[in-house]
Write a structure and sequence with these properties.
Elements (H helix, E strand, L loop, with lengths): L1 H26 L5 E4 L4 H4 L2 H18 L3 E4 L2 E2 L2 E2 L4 H10 L3 E6 L6 H6 L3 H16 L4 E4 L8 H20 L3 E5 L7 E2 L2 E2 H8 L5 E6 H6 L4 H7 L6 E4 L13 H6 L1 H4 L3 E4 L9
Parallel strand pairs: 1-2, 1-12, 2-5, 5-6, 6-7, 7-10, 10-11, 11-12
Antiparallel strand pairs: 3-4, 8-9
Helix pairs in contact: 6-7, 7-8
């Protein structure tokens, strides 16, 4: 079993190297490129795996040419089982930067009804402090429950505005990451459009996942043009390696990236053709 995991994980690292090479060709110029660490979860996806493989894998990513990482394992004040400052030290020793994280906290039914998010904001204050200690600049909510009504969705937007304001007060930025579900309609409005229109651009940015946008039958380029400047981070991905599905128009995305407001590109793999 261990041998199979190592082989699969090694395949993922090879695929990531190929993705980075493809990305460099698509982008047409040298840019900083990050990696969402969920892509290599078989190697470093929990505290034990990170303790065993983290330093070596971070060094491999830097050698490939990645420049920063986005985490996906924050729990009980720790990141991949490490105190935030210790995690930062491992990443920076490899020559990488800790740029962003995927983490979130859902509001309770009582908070939805009252509009008072005080309890959840306590959690966020600690989360923000921890990720600032880890050297990060961006906190991204990776998902949320799909509401049944626009009234409920507005409550979530109000909540995110308050979380974003807390982040801003600490010198950080808060954003939301889409999957395909955000492109469905709630009542008569596309969910992501409503979120873009009902969150404060001073406090909430969006991390457009271009693959999930296409799966949701939406055009990333149209969103760049309709909501210019709102997409500070991009998830550059396909289901497997870039170009694997033939559905995502990366050339058009980069020709129109100036509209998006993008500052950083982050690669993510859900799987690879090697079977990982």
């Amino acid at each position: 079993m261990r041998k199979n995991i190592i082989i699969a994980a090694a395949g993922a690292l090879v695929a990531l190297a190929a993705v980075l090479n493809t990305f460099s060709c698509v982008a047409k110029s040298k840019k900083e490129v990050g990696l969402q660490l969920y892509s290599i979860r078989e190697l470093i996806g929990d505290a034990d795996k990170f303790a065993k493989n983290g330093a070596q894998v971070m060094a491999q990513l830097a050698e490939m040419g990645y420049t920063h990482v986005e985490t996906a394992n924050y729990s009980d004040g720790k990141i991949y089982g490490l105190a935030p400052a210790d995690f930062r030290a491992v990443v920076e020793k490899a020559g990488l930067k800790t740029l962003s994280t995927h983490t979130t906290h859902f509001i309770s039914d009582e908070e939805k009804a009252s509009g008072n998010f005080a309890e959840s904001l306590k959690w966020w204050k600690q989360c923000i402090a921890d990720h600032k200690a880890a050297g990060m600049s961006y906190i991204v909510a990776p998902s949320m429950p799909i509401p049944g009504t626009l009234k409920e969705l507005k409550v979530w937007c109000d909540y995110y505005n308050q979380v974003g304001k807390l982040c801003a007060e600490s010198g950080m930025k808060f954003g939301y990451h889409n999957h395909s579900g955000e492109f469905q309609k709630i009542e008569d409005k596309v969910m992501l459009d409503f979120m873009l229109e009902n969150t404060d651009a001073r406090y909430v940015f969006f991390q457009l996942d271009v693959y999930w946008a296409v799966i949701g039958k939406a055009s990333p380029v149209e969103y760049f043009k309709r909501y210019p400047g709102r997409f500070t981070l991009l998830h550059i991905k396909d289901y497997k390696e870039i170009g694997q599905s033939g559905m995502v128009g990366f050339d058009a995305i980069y020709k129109n990236a100036d509209f998006s407001g993008v500052k950083y590109n982050i690669v993510e793999l859900e799987a690879t053709t090697s079977g990982y």
